[in-house]
Amino acid sequence: xxxxVFQQQNSGELxxxxxxxxxxxxxxxxxxxxxxxxxxxxxxxEEFIDADFTAxxxxxxxxxxxxxxxxxxxCKKKGxxxxxxxxxxxxxxxxxxxxxxxxxxxxxxxETFGLPEYTVKVNNDRIxxxxxxxxxxxxxxxxxxxxxxxxTVEDVLIRLPRxxxxxxxxxxxxxxxxxxxxxxxxxxxxxxxxxxxxxxxxRSEKDS
Length: 208
Fold this sequence. Notes:
Blueprint: E1 2-8, H1 13-22, E2 27-34, E3 57-61, H2 65-78, E4 81-83, H3 107-112, E5 117-123, E6 126-134, H4 140-143, H5 153-167, H6 183-207
Parallel strand pairs: 1-2, 1-3, 3-4
Antiparallel strand pairs: 5-6
Helix pairs in contact: 5-6
């Protein structure tokens, strides 16, 4: 699966690293970085984004609204799926990268990255094994698990949200006044919900 990344001021670097580390069968073929000073209003966004590109998927980490709008229109015209976490408009626009739901249109990327999913093995109320089925492209889902084997379920459920928020690359100042959530707090919430679900499933399977 070929992916092109559009970023501004290196805003997608951590996600690119995470996708390259954990995304099997996924190739980030090109990263378009826009790092120069930009005016408040961009009349000709095509001066910054070359329309001559093809890909299976585009990841949008741009910040300037005029560039975001132009890239969304381009991808829609070309029939290329677009993921723009935290943005509004066409394509897939989850609140955070780890809030992306499953969708067949997203191919291997959507199978590996998005709303977190775990498989867990529990023995005597301790975590004896934990695997990531699906996680955040920044790698926080994987990075936060390093110390949990052998820990009690209660301890892990308390510590995981803090660990995820520590590794999370989202902007903590991006508070949404409508939902009352920040991206970092949302990331902690979806991870603890996924782990709780996996633990409940492991306990149920053990008792059956």
